[in-house]
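Continuing the series of single-chain predictions for the mutant panel. This is the parent chain; the variants come on the following pages.
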Amino acid sequence: MKEDRAGNILLTQRRKPSAAQRRLKPIFITAHMDHPAFVVRGFANDATVELEFRGGVHDPYFTRAPLEIFDGSGQRHLAKIVAMDTEAKPFKRVIAALERPTDDIMVGDIGRWHFGRSFKPHVSDGLLHTHACDDLAALAAALATLDVLRNRKGMEHVGVLLTRAEEIGFIGAIAACKLRSVPKGARLLCLENSRSFAESPIGGGPILRVGDKMSVFHPVLTNHIGMILTEHQKAEPTFKWQRKLMPGGTCEATTFNTYGFESTCLCLPLGNYHNMHDIDGAVAGKPGAKVGPEFISMDDYHGMIRMLVIIALRLDDGKGSPLLDRMEQLHRDFKFVLERD
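Parent structure:
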């Protein structure tokens, strides 16, 4: 485990690759470590706290919203937002009134949405409900995949990159590119939790994400993975996966592609994206916007680990580009229609 100067974490394997494996381009499974949350900026008194919000959440969700702020010892302090400055830079700011005055909270402490005293992360009807799936569920999947692959011969070139500050503009990923934290020839499989839509249902399987609202991802890598998963599903029909654009947000794969890496995204369809319940209603002006736990399908989560293992085992199996092979076969079969008398 190594940490670069930006605080990104790089996990690689001690096993020495063979000469043939050294010729392979490294594969890094990436996930970001942060989730939208509050950071304490200062105090008006021991009962009122000023916080800034780092991440993307629509303004209506802040109105009188309940918070829990954690001090340096991990103790929780309940509060409620009483004022907000949406024009503050670089992050919007709120004033929160504490339920009980305290002098234990310090500048830099972290706050998050409060879902009620009785709420605990739980699995119900196959869905995990918790404070933050984005991107911690994907981070857990990355580590679980590495646990599997580090016991497989020929997988010595697979590692994990965990990035910081994705929610405020991919700052950790940009820094990783500029610091050359991973080799320039590396292939990056960026993991995300992406807002679910009707055409990308929770429980429909993990998703090969071909792009986001800003860009499309590396076409050769994405298409190759799509062919691998299609072939695997033919051999194992119970394997579920989806291939979608997922335009509800922007992914670090866009960052890595912009800086010249081969990069694509695999994601889990997510409910209550960034803790926002009924996003469409809030955007349309429906009153009473409420925050809530994020949720994912546990089957999708385990499917993501299977998907990653399948990709890692097949990406360098020597078969070349399946899509190119298909195009060549089409040309051989039907080029006669182009022939002239």
